Amino acid sequence: MTRLARTVLLSLAALFALVAGGCGNKQETAIVGETEGIYVTVDDLKYQVQISRILNPASVEDQAYLAGLPEDEQPSAEEVWFAIFMRVENDTEEELSATDGFSIVDTQENHFEPIELDAELNEFSYEARPIPSGELLPEFNSPPSDNTIQGALLLFKVGIQSLYNRPLELEIESLVGGDNATVNLDV
Asked: Which of 44, 51, 174, 175 has its CA 20 to 30 A from that of 95?
């Protein structure tokens, strides 16, 4: 084989490798987050669990997260307060509505629904709302956006036994019948 033929053959092989490598480069929409911090997409909005943790009602910081609870909502001796701090991003060209469909599921199929907080008493609470193009939930320059967590609060009462039935998964439901998403929670 001549030097020119070898050079042409190597050049074609390199070009083919570049083209073939680019074909698999398209990122698919993620609907499963193996851990917190991963973006999952529901109805073209990107949802990210900033952090999740058990709340301590005796902690001054955590007391602010528990403000606005209905009077009859207190955990039993077999339950704890569990907080998920959520961020939602709209990087589309149109206004989209954030979901209010969340639940925590353990490995025994126990489901836990979020507790509705009075948003006037709890400035950290997650409120499903339309998110304009290029904007976030929580809004910039708001207490949940400006603190170290940078997420809006979803509050759950979770059975202590379920904390042992890991992984706990957060299910995020589509508003329009599209794909739901799940995120494995760090407990």
From this structure: 51
Helices (H) and strands (E) in the chain, counts: 3, 13
- Is there a domain that residue 148 lies in? yes
Domain with 92 in it: what CATH number? Answer: 2.60.40.1240
Radius of gyration of the chain (CA): 22
SS (H, E, C) 97-117: ECCCCEEEECCCCCEECEECC
> Residue 60: inside a domain, yes or no?
yes
Q: Compute the distance between CA of residue 31 and CA of residue 39 in angstroms, rounded to an integer.
A: 8
Distance CA 88, CA 117 (A): 19
How do residues 24-56 score in pLDDT, each as one tens digit?
Answer: 444 467 888 888 889 999 999 999 999 999 999
Given a contact cutoff of 8 angstroms between Cβ atoms, the answer to whether 67 and 115 are in contact is no
Of 49, 78, 50, give the one whose Cα is nearest residue 169.
49
Residues 14 and 119: their CA atoms lie apart, in Å, by: 59
Within a domain: residue 88?
yes
**166, part of any domain:** yes
pLDDT at 168 over 80: yes
| Nearest CA-CA partner of 89 in 154, 43, 137, 52 | 137
